[in-house]
UniProtKB/TrEMBL annotation:
Provenance organism: Leucobacter allii
NCBIfam families: isochor_syn
GO MF, one annotated term: isochorismate synthase activity
Chorismate-utilising enzyme C-terminal domain location: 167-423
Enzyme Commission code: 5.4.4.2
Family that this chain belongs to: Belongs to the isochorismate synthase family.
Protein name: isochorismate synthase
A family per Pfam: Chorismate_bind
The reaction(s) this protein catalyses: chorismate = isochorismate
Keywords: Isomerase
UniProt region (Disordered), positions on chain: 130-150
Length: 433
């Protein structure tokens, strides 16, 4: 289903270079931030010009078609001409075909962005909006100066999380291992949830800044109430070059004890179970990308990726587009990978629907951006939390975070539970008082 006008709206995007270097996170809306950030790259969106909503099994294909129509109808004044300049939408997509969560593409009114030492601002308006003008944004500013300053850390109220249905998760892992032993599937990824409540008026730039400063190797994002820092690049497609990073296989970090931390890393690298799980995930990505690319190459061996909370087994992939597929079409071809679903995919997804007592929503779906040329960057929505709408009366918002792990033959339920605790740490620490 597509909730949008049948005729593509006409947008006008004007991009201009900036001389200054504004604080991207500080420019984000405190209660409805729109952010994509990693080190010296990223963008922040302010306001909303267009929202396209999708659901069902064809949501990626429908989004790709709709976006192509919007891009073709747009007027774009873009002398900067870098990936992510001109017309841009940020988006987030649900994991499951039957999810009750909407998948969306959102075009901001104003986009301030950075790529290394270059900064720019893009103003986007609807051509049919009589209140808009053709005047470009000021060359010496961002047009977002009216936003309030970020709240100091001491005023952040914090969120206390409570775990949901831990016993159900443990029994689900045991049931999954039994089905694997019976030959129903080779791997299934099972997740569990924690839940908290965010007081009204809380400044979400505080947890976003914590994530961005602590998880330097991750993309910190905020799109339509989905907030997190993902380590796993689903796809990056710019100018015909395609890259991805596959993560599968995890050990909790012990940064307080160097020797113990090194043992955890070595156990991960030498574990037959983790290597087996990782090979499933890499093969699923290679198989999905093969029809769309050429000259596909991967890291010779999985390598240990160190994050503040966990070690991951990682493999990087690179390729060239064999056709002019957009980034959204590549996302649709890849989703869901074995890293978030299992192998074989259809059997694993069916088992997830049966063994997980909740709708994942956008967790383990896709989040990222796309420009008018079809270039974009998308990650798997991991290490994240979904914020609900403000509650009538109190204005408080529910905060739900999820984490999962790959269940294969021999998986131990208590070990898998511990792995989810490690994976939830980025969110629980970012939202803590």
């Amino acid at each position: 289903m597509v909730k949008s006008d049948s005729k593509a709206p006409r947008l006008h995007a004007v991009t201009r270079l900036l001389d200054g270097a504004p604080d991207l996170i500080g420019l984000a809306d405190p209660e409805q931030p729109m952010l994509w950030h990693r080190g010296d790259r990223g963008c922040v969106g302010v306001g909303e010009v267009l929202r396209l909503s999708f659901s069902g099994p064809d949501r990626f294909a429908a989004a790709a078609r709709s976006w192509r129509g919007v891009a073709e109808a747009a007027r774009i004044d873009d002398p900067v001409r870098l990936p992510g300049t001109g017309l841009v939408a940020l988006g987030t997509f649900a994991f499951d075909d039957a999810s009750g969560a909407e998948s969306v593409l959102v075009v901001p009114r104003l986009l301030v962005a950075r790529h290394r030492d270059r900064w720019w601002v893009t103003e986007i308006r609807r051509v049919d909006d009589p209140a808009a003008t053709d005047a470009p944004p000021p060359a010496d500013g961002t047009g977002a100066a009216a936003l309030p300053a970020a709240a100091p850390e001491g005023s952040w109220p914090g969120v206390g999380f409570a775990a949901e249905a831990v016993d159900d998760y443990l029994s689900g892992v045991r049931e999954a291992v039994g089905r694997i032993d019976d030959g129903a599937f080779e791997k299934v990824v099972l997740a569990r949830r924690i839940r908290g409540e965010l007081p009204a008026g809380s400044d979400l730039r505080v947890p976003l800044r914590r994530l961005a400063e602590r998880y330097l190797d991750c993309w910190t994002f905020a799109v339509d109430g989905l907030v997190g820092a993902s380590p796993e690049t689903l796809i990056r497609s710019t100018g015909g070059a395609v890259s991805a990073r596959v993560l599968a296989g995890t050990r909790g970090r012990h940064p307080e004890d160097e020797a113990r931390d090194a043992r955890a890393r070595d156990e991960l690298v030498t574990s037959a179970k983790e290597q087996h799980e990782h090979a499933f995930a890499v093969q699923s990505v290679v198989t999905a990308l093969a029809p769309h690319v050429r000259d596909l190459s991967t890291s010779e061996e999985p390598f240990p990726l160190r994050l503040p909370n966990v070690w991951h087994l990682a493999t990087d992939l690179g390729a060239s587009l064999d056709e002019r597929s957009s980034a959204l079409e590549l996302v649709g071809a890849l989703h869901p990978t074995a890293a978030v679903a299992g192998t074989p995919t259809s059997a694993a997804v069916a088992a997830i629907a049966e063994l997980e007592p909740f709708d994942r929503g956008r967790y383990s779906g896709a989040v990222g951006w796309i420009d008018a040329a079809g270039d974009g960057e998308w990650v798997i929505a991991l290490r994240c939390a979904q914020l609900g709408d403000p509650q009538p009366g109190s204005g408080a918002r529910a905060v739900v975070a999820s984490a999962g792990g790959g269940i294969v033959a021999g998986s131990d339920p208590e070990h898998e539970l511990g792995e989810t605790v490690s994976k939830l740490r980025p969110v629980t620490e970012a939202f803590a008082a």
